[in-house]
Amino acid sequence: MTAPLDLRQVVSPYLRDLIELANLDRFDRVREQVERVGGCTRPIQLVGSTVTLDAATRDVLHAYSTADEPTGRLLVACGNRRATRCPACSRLYAADTYQLIKAGLTGGKAVPETVRAHPRVFATLTAPSFGRVHNRPTTATGKLLPCRCGESHTADDSTLGTPVDPQTYDYCGAVLFNAHAGALWARFTTFLRREIAARAGLAQKELANVLRLSFAKVAEYQKRGLVHFHAVVRLDGPQGSTAPPPAWATAELLTDAIESAAARVVLTVESDTVGVRELRWGRQIDVREIAGATADSDLTDRAVAAYVAKYATKGAEGSGTVDRSLYCHLCNGRGMTTPVFDGDPIECRSCGGTGMAESLACLAVERHVRQMIRTCWDLGRLPEFADLKLWKWAHMLGFRGHFSTKSRRYSTTLGALREIRRAWRTEQTRKRLELPEPSDATTLVHSDWRYLASGYSPGEELLAETVRRESAMALQLKHEGEEWR
């Protein structure tokens, strides 16, 4: 007989834990939990129970407790939208965003298909120039031209997007633009309604009685670390997507109004330290009409939905920054902590009074990004910019808005899509357990759940990596199959 394996001889903690899990009576259940969260990078561990009772007799119809699980807890997906944090959950978020955008272009999800005939455009609002940067200019025919520095950069050159002359680059203006990008967008939508009303010969209050402006936008970082917005803008009847707009509301009128409104937007920021700054959109404004799915165009409704969904899962890391906050959470970035008993604030021992969780000199980022972060930190210390909380959003280079937003009547919501998926899963579980139809009159559900921790055990991490690899291979095969159609 072969002697049993001594786990103390297994050097790898991952392999040792996996062997221990494999020896459990219900190892299949362990693997099933990992597969159900889709290989989530950092799932939430819950402990607790739920009991379903007959409302009349109080008989137990179904009971579940994590005490019966082989590992003693339940894994739940983290739900993080960012691809750098959790590729598995971000793919689900991107799929939901795709359905949300697509519904506003082609109908579905409680949006009528007649919305296809509404005027709709894809608009891109960019940031202005704050100084010359290294780039790859081309001619109208696509011929590559030398950069302003005199060199011809390759596509993967790390200097792209960085200032040609860092000494004269307006870092304060760049950070303040990012910090006020959301306010600039809100002001733009106000001016856009005014421009549409002026072209229709109506007052702005009268416009609301005949037309509604609907939109969905996503933020994207340029290589130079500045935010710009891509937006689907649509004209509807006064009640939204259920009614067409007036005949005079055309895509041409909408395009002209967007260009005029973007040029008019200005936001003035005053400070004793940096002076008076007027923040505007850049001159490179692109507005194009969205074609139908069968049209011979690259800008179809499905292509636009896929484009927006792709950027909904990205963050500032595309510009070379980090994907984590940099302020000290112990002192909340203040550098000082308040004693338990009454007394004067004392220097935070965790950050040494700097307010930063990590030293700027130790960050693995380019010089340009490091200076953007440093500028966020310096401006955030000024009283006139305290409400911007730039120290909290330094890792985002000052941008503190939502990456993906929409107007109320554009289409469905992410919450509604998640509720549909949750209801479907609940119904499948009910049928599998042969439970009665849920209602307050027939069943009662008592639940008690508590947070335990986040992440996997070492052995579960190996199982999760297998799930991720299989999912990536399935996606690759799917894409290759679509390309060959």
TrEMBL record:
Pfam families, sorted: RepSA
Protein known as: Replication initiation protein
Source organism of this protein record: Wenjunlia tyrosinilytica
